[in-house]
Every structure is written in C-alpha cells, then in structure tokens.
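Our platform keeps sequence and structure together, in a single record for each protein. Such a record has a labelled line for the sequence and another for the backbone structure tokens. The tokens are whole numbers drawn from a learned vocabulary of local backbone shapes. The remainder of this section carries one protein's record, kept here as part of the documentation:
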Amino acid sequence: MRFLLLLLPLIAGTAHANGTCFDLSRPFTAPPRASLPLTPGDPDASAAGANGEAVWAQRRGIVKQPLAKLRSFLEDPRHFKSSRVDEMTLTPRPAGALLAHHDVHSLVRPFPLVTVEWTDEWATSLLAGTPSRPEAVLIAYQKRAGTSHITRWCGTVLLTRVDDTTTDVAQFEEAIITGRSHDEMKDDLAGMLERLRTLP
C-alpha cells in the first residue's frame, strides 16, 4: 500500500515499465501467500526478511471494524496519501469478475523542475461469500510503470470476516525500492494496522 512508499528518498529516475507480480485482470481464488499464524492471546503476528534484492514483510491482526468499512478505506489509497505525494489520481478499469479494479497514478515534486511519477494497479477479489455479503476479500496491488527507483512493489491485504464488527487482516508486501529496508516495511504494516483499528 502506498503509505509504505512515502518514506523513500525520492529522486527522479528514468520512467520505464516493469515486470509485475500478479495477473490482476482476473480474480484470485485464494491468497498467493499463506497468512502468518496467530498465537492465542496475542492479537498480532509479524515477520520480515529479504530474498535477494527484494525485501518483504508480513503482518496479521484482528481489527474491531466491519469488513466492508476496512475494504472501502483500503481500496482507495487517497485515503492514506502522504503529504509527500503532490498529486494522486485514480482511474477505473473494467472490473469484470473483480469487485474493484483501478489504476492509481502518483506524482511527487521533490525539487523545483523535478518530478517523480509511478502508476500502480489495484484489484479486489471475492474469495468467500457473496458480493453483497463477503466473508473474505483480497485486495492486491502492484507497481506497473514509473520511476526506476521503484523496481518492484506489490502486496496483498486479506480481509476475513470474524463477525459483523470484527475482521481478520493479513498483510503481505514485497519490494525492491531505493533506500527501503524490510524493517521499515514491517513498521509501516504495523502502522497501517493500528490506523485501521482507529478508523472513526
């Protein structure tokens, strides 16, 4: 999610298309990665590491918020846009069998006459339940084009209904980003989980 990009030392780079992590033109039928197990008595679990150049982080926690409310917040990154991003626009894509599908374009002006831009693709899949009453949804995102300082960036958020007012939230993210460490990524996932818990 975009909040994980915003502590970057943003410098202009050559724009180019990158290899993507997922095929987001069609729905997932299961999460691409297993969620972390939760320990009885502990509401959260986390892990982080590196795989070659890529860093990754996972977090899972129970959030006392309805699934629909969390989904509405997370599907639109403008809800958690950092002040470092000067412009962010959302462009719908045909959803087809997906619950939601759109591109998100971000622009940063770190210095006069210098801009940094990138475009992400976001898609939401129904994993269980019905569109009107989902039991589990998967929000997936990935960088598609833009600054060369973000070589790879992709992730998922699995929302699973516990009851009408409680949701199991499992996050995963992987990236190759200039100046980005897995510890920073893990901290940002924790920060987003706490933000979800305090939504009004």
